[in-house]
Amino acid sequence: MKKTVLFVLACLCLAATQALARDFVLTDTTGNVSIPEWTVSAKSLGFTDGPAFSVTKTTLHGGKQEGSTRITIVTPELEVSLIPTRGMDIYEIKSGGIRFGWKSPVDEIVNPAFMNLEMRGGLGWLDGFNEMMVRCGYEWTGHPGQEQGRLMSLHGRAGNTPASKVVVAIDDKAPHAIHVKGLIKENTFKFAALETWTELTVTPGVKCVKIHDVLTNNSDYDRDYQIIYHSNFGVPILEAGAKVLIPVQEISPFNDYAKKGLADWQTYLGPTKGYDEMVFNIRAYAGKDGWTPVVLRNKAGDHGIAVRYDAAELPVLTLWKNTDTLRQGYVTGIEPGTSYAYPRQIERKQGRVKSLAPGASQAFDVEYWPLTTGDEVAGFAKRVEAVAAGRTPKVVAVPMAKE
Amino acid sequence: MKKTVLFVLACLCLAATQALARDFVLTDTTGNVSIPEWTVSAKSLGFTDGPAFSVTKTTLHGGKQEGSTRITIVTPELEVSLIPTRGMDIYEIKSGGIRFGWKSPVDEIVNPAFMNLEMRGGLGWLDGFNEMMVRCGYEWTGHPGQEQGRLMSLHGRAGNTPASKVVVAIDDKAPHAIHVKGLIKENTFKFAALETWTELTVTPGVKCVKIHDVLTNNSDYDRDYQIIYHSNFGVPILEAGAKVLIPVQEISPFNDYAKKGLADWQTYLGPTKGYDEMVFNIRAYAGKDGWTPVVLRNKAGDHGIAVRYDAAELPVLTLWKNTDTLRQGYVTGIEPGTSYAYPRQIERKQGRVKSLAPGASQAFDVEYWPLTTGDEVAGFAKRVEAVAAGRTPKVVAVPMAKE
Amino acid sequence: MKKTVLFVLACLCLAATQALARDFVLTDTTGNVSIPEWTVSAKSLGFTDGPAFSVTKTTLHGGKQEGSTRITIVTPELEVSLIPTRGMDIYEIKSGGIRFGWKSPVDEIVNPAFMNLEMRGGLGWLDGFNEMMVRCGYEWTGHPGQEQGRLMSLHGRAGNTPASKVVVAIDDKAPHAIHVKGLIKENTFKFAALETWTELTVTPGVKCVKIHDVLTNNSDYDRDYQIIYHSNFGVPILEAGAKVLIPVQEISPFNDYAKKGLADWQTYLGPTKGYDEMVFNIRAYAGKDGWTPVVLRNKAGDHGIAVRYDAAELPVLTLWKNTDTLRQGYVTGIEPGTSYAYPRQIERKQGRVKSLAPGASQAFDVEYWPLTTGDEVAGFAKRVEAVAAGRTPKVVAVPMAKE
Fold first, then answer.
1. Cβ–Cβ of C120/B165 closer than 8 Å?
2. Is residue B291 within a helix (H) or strand (E), and if so which, with residue range?
3. Most buried residue, A354, B333, C243, C390, by CB count within 10 Å?
4. Is the bond preceding A358 in cis, omega lying within 30 degrees of 0?
5. What structural domains and CATH numbers belong to chain C?
6. By CB neighbour count within 10 A (0-12 exposed, 13-18 middle, 19+ buried), where does A32 fall?
7. Contact state of B63 with A164 under an 8 Å Cβ cutoff
8. What Pfam families has UniProt attached to this entry (chains A, B, C) (predicted)?
9. Distance of alpha carbon B222 from alpha carbon B225, whole angstroms
10. What is the pTM of this model?
């Protein structure tokens, strides 16, 4: 029964995008539009045929968040915050009294004007990293690398690119799905003309946050791209005994250090001093719909998060277990992508760097389903099991590459 | 006859600078002045003795152009946009329905706060490059180089320096020439105290945009400087069969790749996939007035642009032919300078790095004459011929340096 | 007699911090507070039981100071300017018609958004350096160095970090001491969770600017820190024949170039072309109160500045003599710190890199006493003598490290 409900809701979630909508342009470089403070609600729009909701944009001030912007969507089920000035990243989701996201030592929403991605040998990205979901791409991703004498800094630039256009579109028809669209440009003369229309959809009445991004190569040349949807969760889901459910086809350790965690990849330690991070490279099965479901749940199994992604678009999955101390950043990453986290030169050698033809586009679809009851967790867990279908994961003991 | 007219106009263009003017201070770090939106017109000033004009300042928003500013001058003949926050660069000129400038994959006017000039091994400048004219200097210019273990990023910093003072001065007397002056500071403790007062003059009734910059070395030491006035034009002037007219004294290819284009240096291909760029180093003759005229014209010769520069101030000329595809950036550069585009260490070895004594100043003068009729093109073409005076260019087949 | 007065005043200066105060929150990233223009005065607060004072915050515009902020405190004795957007650095102090600070070729208060600390091989900091006091730390300090393949740029990042919280607290009780507090965060995932509450106190009626900073390691790991309070003075104190009085225990040249200046370390040349800088490493005695007093005075000894610091917190002192030409930056630095100015890897090898345990804090206390009469200079000079107590400094002729 529950599965059916979820399926119906998922369909709603998809269908809503197509409905007629009224558009609110909050940022537009072409028309020189930028609205610093803005709000709209079901009430202000005169909607009486569905649940209450609101969408609010705020400009942030002080420290390194001076000039950052934040959009918050509130529905009866969800509160979702995203950051137009940081690649439309999702800062956090709240649902049923639970916060989905994590606590980084970086506690401000850093304006990219204050970032230097190339510092610390290409680790500058860590100065701003605190989001529930960061787009790591699209020109490159992964650990810092060098190609042709040029540094490719950690996880690319999209997540530190302020959106050129931001549009909130709200469906005219109930249930009045809310779409927040943002245009992220990675344009460099001679190097890149990659533009991504990101879209985040929340439908009042549905406990789902849906991402539908379309990357387009606007150049006249084939262009490489890489993307990792770096999706991160800490307490309260993450705890000693928390578990991640993945329909694994094949799993291997990212590096030698992760070898010793391979047997226990599915369970989590509590905050552990000196743990740092263990990373696993995973190929997962997809269901008949082509989507791979993943569930991260707390020990008791009474809350968690489901991450679903289109496995044709995002063929590999990085599992990042950073169960170090709370103040160090106790967090795990469920990271569907086209690449693992190796530097681009390694990903290229191993054949995972994708290419887009001139004018071609590629969509990426990911969904986040906050699970706030034991039933919801169990329901999604069954979907993972159904996709795994009892098949035994292939466990490869040796890392596929030296970092 | 036409030559006479042009000559008279040129004189007017020069003389106007000296007239009494009313000054509008739009930016002044000393007085803490910054006016985000501003406009003035012949009408608002009560001028009835000359053509209509307006000058408008706008602050730009969204994406990486958040906080950029733009000043637009409109006269009966011209619309000129310049960018105070990017070294007072000229973004574009419009005249007679023709746009003079080019279309870069970088389609925003990037605030330098979002630039990292040192990225991609010193090619970060390409993240913002889309102007009709960029000042490439003054501390250094050219391709990225290293001296004493320090990276000198592509084309220096002036073009990514926000102006410290911006003054619009409008002559009291008809024809009410409009001067936009901007102060660009390249000040670094121990390294540089180079300040440049840039001045762009447009005279209502005259189809000329005049640049008169004065670089001053405010330090107590001799200081090196380099400058290239990187002036760039794409469609509609640039097309298959377009031609550039230069009174060449000597021409050589910048590198081995350009060797094969040497014979055809004067004509242009249409947008050509895989062409990338060919660059030629040119020494040109100057007329009796000391100025070198250059004409770039379309195939039919019914429109084009004339670039004139004081050859004593700017002794060398780089011709940059980047006739790659339209979306890659189909563009050619007419680039008078003190240096070619080699890294500074090469320019130094070859004796082209200039020096300014303590307190000394150096002026640079460049003019842009949009040519919107066949007569105008022919008139200026004759001036180029007159300077060349039938002398045969010396063609050197071998690049003067390895890049 | 004079010493007693100064001592009493110093006590007042310390005690004031504890009084009940009214707080004005000017910046707060948590509450999204940022007040661009603000002022308060004894009069506006209804204080009639003490001297007049005012505190004003201004936002700066134009050039690279766009978005910088400045707080100015005015009392009968002092005018103090500090820069919240640049690590709460002190820009200048004025007292008795004398300016305490210096004149750098960098004449704007640069917004860190326009800085690239890693440029010029890690010397980017020089693009913004013009303050009377810059905090050089806390993650690292000193000349650019490399550890584990990562560049540590000149003098760290605190001085180019915009404050996350800024609070002006004014004591309810006369003499209504004014405290400007600012929170500087150096937070990088995996690397640093160092937060510093800076506090600058000025008490109306007292000619003293007191710094009391508390650095806290918010991580769960021991973290290294380094700090240099880079305190800089030029004309009119600095002049030919000016003198610095330090109760030196041991002094050595920073490098080979400084060897030839060792004998004359205590006196200054006038502006001297080609001098560049000589740097001396000093261990100084502290008085019974644990503080080391230093006096810099002009030739006549009728004005100067006293710098006092807690020698247990800041065990070493760098004396930076940069008596080059006026326009090059004629300046001397009195720089108490935990480290000398060698790169971190050298400081580490020599045992001067400090460490903070998880959750631990470390205070740093420095005072600036403008001396505007011969009596004041003489009074403080006696305090230096008293601490030196006639002991002969140990002069070490050889630098302790190769840079």
1. no
2. strand B291-297
3. B333
4. no
5. 2-395 (2.70.98.10)
6. middle
7. yes
8. DUF4432
9. 10
10. 0.94
